[in-house]
UniProtKB/TrEMBL annotation, chain B:
PANTHER family: PERIPLASMIC PHOSPHATE BINDING COMPONENT OF PHOSPHATE ABC TRANSPORTER, PHOSPHATE-BINDING PROTEIN PSTS 1. The keyword Repeat does not apply. It comes from Mediterraneibacter faecis. Residues 41-283 form the PBP domain. Pfam families: PBP_like_2 (PF12849). Gene3D superfamilies: Periplasmic binding protein-like II. The complex is composed of two ATP-binding proteins (PstB), two transmembrane proteins (PstC and PstA) and a solute-binding protein (PstS). Residues 1-20 form the signal peptide. Its main location: membrane. One of its GO terms (cellular component) is plasma membrane. Belongs to the PstS family. GO terms for molecular function: phosphate ion binding. The keyword Membrane applies. This is Phosphate-binding protein.
Length: 320, 304
């Protein structure tokens, strides 16, 4: 490295002496300046991620270190009654919120996945031209709608509809939250799945047709298995988005501190509880610390999802 | 291709320019203010800055009072943030803001030594009223006894027919545990009994609570009177035949009210004192009542 640098500078020195134009010098500094800038940008992103993680661990561990609750109480108890002061002495069981998050997100996946994978197959395999020109942009618009709009529409359209269809007094429910989340993650899953279906080599399909399979047979016996890891990544990406959503869910889930008993019961999720309580909780108090611990849990979960995505989308050598 | 690039660049440039303009104008304003303060400091008129933070229930009133105060004293600038009672108390105790707005007494949130340094200014009275969906009121539930109210909110009474209403499930719509409104309602309307949080639907703010009660049959909740000044679309319920009004609060008949506090660290400085005097003064009192807040000096009782 040093040698190269020496050579370069020597060359430049020579070129300067020779009275050549400044262009070479310019290109040299430009090359390093831009490279430095890009490296700094990359390092900054890494540093920010690590800082956020460290900060959440620092804030969130207080529940266990300062207030002396066990990790089993936090993850396994439904008794949520933290004191809003620094003395502590309340209970911090967050199981209700964890179950609430899992139920709503699981339901959302159940609803969204069949439609999303179906629409991906439609836009790539069934109607590629129409899919590429019209359908895909429409799905992408879907993905760009802010969550508050989903929540609001859910509150004004979905809640009364649920009330009417199922003859209920209260429309807020796990079902409503699941449907809203399903709408939100549908484009994410659909887009990623479409990309991975698109990247299945054409030879595979040709070979399938050559062996005498119909279009449907080639799709579900050849294309989908080949694109399987990509579709799975899309589903996990959708799940991660659903897990992190607070605003839209808060508007339709009904926010009751109790485990959901069925599709129509109201409950709370991790994100909605954080959003509801953080404004009023005292900094450094037991409640705020417990909320930080929940934030830490969300961070760890999203980390897990990312790892899963990498695991499933890693290149498979045996298949190539 | 070139056209696309051009459009993209234009968009980015436009956004950057908007940002720059947005930031620029505000910084200009502050520098203008600073200049004004400097040039007119020799003048006897009031100038300076007041910062306040805390209770979101008190913020609308504080904002309104600040607006009309600024009409008389254009050289003063007032910044009011929400953030919750606890945050307001913490910040004023640390000296970050001049005024800490709070629904609760400082002793409840801070430790003793910190609370002792703060001076309490009781600026107004907030009255909380139980509200129900119109279908409940139309079916004849106009008043509830305290026992009925407690029984409803603790989840023992679950059907309106038990308290003279329609045969319909009671839907509890409440506020989160850390809310000051909930604390007040629990203390004075429910005599300290814990709400049944495992059956109630919590809402992030009083506006959403109002909407939910309005749109859900059989719903009951509670809000401050300041949310009921217009046509809110819900009905208030009397407690032991006493209507939740400001008059009944002044006379001490209606029990669910609390003082709103503006805390200062030690005695307030000249500008802050002028603002506090203004907000507690008679002139502003009329406006305060129009907004649904009670005037602290009209209270005939100071204890519940």
């Amino acid at each position: 490295m040093y040698c190269v640098f020496r050579e370069n500078s020597e060359q430049q020195y020579i070129s300067l002496i020779k009275g050549e134009n400044m262009k070479k010098q310019n290109m040299f500094t430009k090359e390093y300046a831009w490279r430095g800038l890009m490296t700094a940008g990359g390092l900054l992103v890494i540093a920010i991620t690590i800082c956020i993680g460290a900060f959440l661990i620092y804030k969130g561990s207080g529940t266990f270190t300062i207030f002396g609750h066990s990790i089993f109480e936090f993850l396994g108890s439904t008794d949520w009654n933290p004191e809003d002061n620094a003395q502590g002495g309340g209970t911090v069981g967050a199981l209700i919120f964890i179950v609430g998050s899992l139920c709503t997100c699981g339901l959302a996946l159940l609803i969204a996945t069949p439609f999303a994978v179906g629409s991906a197959i439609f836009m790539i395999e069934i109607a590629p031209k129409f899919g590429e020109k019209f359908y895909r942009p429409i799905v992408e618009i879907f993905a760009g709608i802010p969550s508050v709009v989903y929540g609001w529409v859910g509150l004004t359209v979905l809640i009364p509809a649920i009330k009417k269809v199922f003859h209920l007094q209260v429309g807020h429910s796990v079902l409503a939250a699941g449907i809203v989340l399903a709408l939100m993650i549908f484009p994410t899953i659909s887009n990623v799945a479409a990309d991975s279906i698109h990247s299945v080599p054409k030879d595979y399909r040709m070979a399938a047709y050559g062996l005498g399979s119909t279009r449907w047979q080639s799709i579900y016996k050849v294309v989908i298995p080949a694109a399987g890891s990509g579709i799975l990544s899309g589903i996990i990406l959708g799940l991660a988005r659903a897990f992190g959503e607070a605003l839209a869910v808060a508007m339709v889930i009904g926010q009751t501190t109790a485990l959901p008993k069925g599709l129509f019961s109201t409950t709370k999720s991790l994100t909605t509880e954080i959003a509801a309580q953080m404004g009023n909780a005292t900094e450094g108090g037991e409640m705020k610390t417990a909320l930080w611990t929940m934030a830490l849990l969300l961070f760890l979960l999203s980390l897990l999802f990312i790892l899963l995505i990498h695991y499933f989308s890693r290149p498979k050598k045996d298949k190539e | 291709m070139k056209m696309k690039k051009f459009i993209a660049l234009l968009t980015v440039a436009g956004m950057t320019a908007t940002m720059a303009v947005g930031c620029g104008s505000s910084s200009n304003e502050t520098s203008d203010n600073a200049a004004d303060t400097n040039t007119e400091s020799s003048d006897s008129s009031l100038s300076g800055t007041i910062t306040a933070a805390g209770s979101s229930a008190l913020k609308p009133l504080a904002d309104d009072a600040a607006d009309s105060f600024l009409n008389d004293h254009p050289d003063v600038s007032i910044t009011i943030d929400a953030g919750g009672s606890g945050e307001g108390l913490k910040q004023v105790s640390e000296g970050t803001v001049d005024i800490g707005n709070s629904d609760v007494a400082a002793e409840d949130k801070l430790d003793e030594t910190a609370a002792k340094e703060l001076v309490d200014h009781q600026v107004c009275v907030v009255t909380m009223a139980p509200i129900v969906n119109k279908d409940v009121a139309e079916a004849g539930v106009k008043s509830l006894t305290k026992e009925q109210l407690i029984s409803i909110f603790t989840g023992k009474t679950t059907n309106w027919k038990d308290v003279g209403g329609p045969d319909e499930d009671i839907v509890l719509v409440t506020r989160p545990e850390s809310s000051g409104t909930r604390a007040t309602f629990q203390k004075y309307a429910l005599d300290g009994n814990e709400e049944a949080s495992n059956t109630s639907m919590e809402t992030d703010d009083s506006g959403v609570l109002l909407t939910n009660v309005k749109s859900t049959n059989g719903a009951i909740g509670y809000v401050a009177l300041s949310y009921l000044t217009g046509d809110a679309g819900v009905e208030t319920v009397a407690i032991d035949d006493v209507e939740p009004t400001l008059e009944n609060t002044y006379s001490g008949k209606y029990p669910v009210w609390t003082f709103e506090h503006m805390y200062t660290k030690g005695e307030p400085n000249e500008v802050t004192k002028a603002f506090l005097d203004y907000i507690t003064g008679d002139e502003y009192g009329a406006q305060m009542e129009k907004l649904g807040y009670g005037v602290a000096s009209k209270m005939t009782v100071t204890e519940h």
